Each structure stands twice: as structure tokens, then as C-alpha cells.
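Contributing new complexes? Match this layout with 6-O-phosphono-beta-D-tagatofuranose.
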Amino acid sequence: MNSSEDPATRPLSGKGGLPMLEVVNGQAKALISLYGGQVLSWVPRGEEEVLFLSERSHFTAGQPIRGGVPICWPWFGPHPADPAKPMHGFARLMTWRLTSSATLPSGASRIELMLTESPETLALWPQPFRLLLHIDVGSHLRIALTMVNSGPEPLATTSALHSYFRLGKAGQVHITGLDDTFYIDTLQQDLYTLQRGKLQVDQEINRIYLDTASLCMIHDPLLERQIVVKKEGSRSTVVWNPWSERSRGMADLGPDEYQYMVCIEAGNVRQDGRTLAPGASHTLVTEFAVIH
Ligand code: TA6
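Output block (do not edit by hand):
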């Protein structure tokens, strides 16, 4: 079933004139930008907005959208050899194609988007590929990114689903699920450190937790909710909050907005990166639910 037949999904011209999809069903509503293949909003029925989207975000081709769930692919962070290439790869800077949308037996809506190589991507990354994104909008939000190596050479990737979550107030929030896990602290010259207990969101954080498949939970007493963040096909979890000083240098984040966001990212980065043989594929999944 395509979008015009699926009553839950409506195409619209979003901010900056970017093509977007509004999804409304009995379980939730969501906003998805075809630019970046990026979920920008998810509101399960009876709940408040779960995702953070910056009030100062760019909505301009060539610039990433600050918030929701950006897709970092085929490299996470700076390009491994050429820092002039876009940070976090190009998937979040391309317009994806809507290939189908349908109502699942559960009542959730499934949107399928696709991105394949183009002259633009080949200028940045010389390899052919196919990315398929399944976004299930329901009482859970599930985002599954399947990467296929459609070329004749091995395809080395690092990647993340760079989810931004909306918080009541950062200083009062903590994250569980990372206890006893080693992380690279990028704020301490990549110092290898062991997480002990919960992670308080009360300062700048930029950590790559390695070799972990655990689910995380955001405990938010002000919004009186917990957000459960599950993942599949992922060995790294990245946690990020730029805090006050660093956000001052960011044109697309308001001076106080760091207090209302945290990123928990399902990925395969640094030594957890994946190399796909010709014809091989890998699926990276993140899934959210709100509990009380
Ligand atoms: O995931 C954390 C991180 O890699 C940080 O280092 C920080 O720069 C962030 O992503 C945002 O990157 P962006 O390119 O979206 O400004």
C-alpha cells in the first residue's frame, strides 16, 4: 500500500519547505522528514512529546536538522580520513524516497524510506549502497535501518541512530542501563573508563559505551515518565549532552536548550564498526516506549 492509500499518513510541506510526512493513528502521531529520513516528533496517545527538536534548528538542504532521530551513516563523527567531509556522514543530508506506508495488524503505521547511491553520495563516498528505513509509529516507536552493500568491494561503516530525547530538566534526570560498561570519554582525551551505577545528566557528556547491547532508561521525575530505549544490531551506545559552554558555540541550539535534551544513540562506532561483504546487509534498530 502506498502513502496515498494509507489514511494514517499524509505528505506535507514542512518547515523550510522540506517534504515531510505526518502520521496519525489510534496509538500515536509522528512527524517524519524525508530530508534526512529523520523522525522529528513522536507523541504516543495520552503522552507528551518524547523527542527533542531544537527551536533554532536549520531546515535547509545541506544542513542537518538538530533533533529527532538523525541517521549517522556511513561514518559516525568526522570522516575517518577527510575532516572536510560532513560530520556524521551524508545520510542525514539527503532526501530519502518514500517507498511504502501501511497499517500493521497491531494498528501501528509502518513507513518505509529508501536511499541509494547518487552522484552526490559518490562524490563523498565512492561505494554503492542501499539503505532501507522502516519506521513503525505506534505505542512504541521503532526505527530499523538496514544497510546493504550493493557494490563489489567490502563496505566499512560506522553508524548511529542519534536520538534526541526531550527532558523536563537535565539536572534532575538520570540514565540507567550502562552500569559496569566501559566507555570512551571523548571529553578526557578518549580515556577508557568504567561506568559505575547510574549516569546523571548534570554536566557535559560525550561518551561512547562499547560492546553493550543493553537497553537504557531515562528517568525523568519532572515529566513523571521513564523512556525505555531498546536496541538491536548495535554494540555501541553514545550518550551526549553539550551542556552550557559548548552549546554557546552551536548556532542551531538555543542557549538554554541543552537543559531539555539528551541523546542516547544506538550505534556501531569506533571498534564496533561493521564491514559488510559484497551483497551482505546489517540492520540497526532503536525502539522507544514511555512508561510510568
Ligand atoms: O554523538 C555525539 C556527537 O558525536 C558529539 O561529538 C556532538 O558533536 C554531536 O554528536 C552532534 O554532532 P552534530 O554534527 O550534529 O553537531
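Reviewers usually confirm one structural detail per submission. For this one: The longest strand covers residues 281-291.
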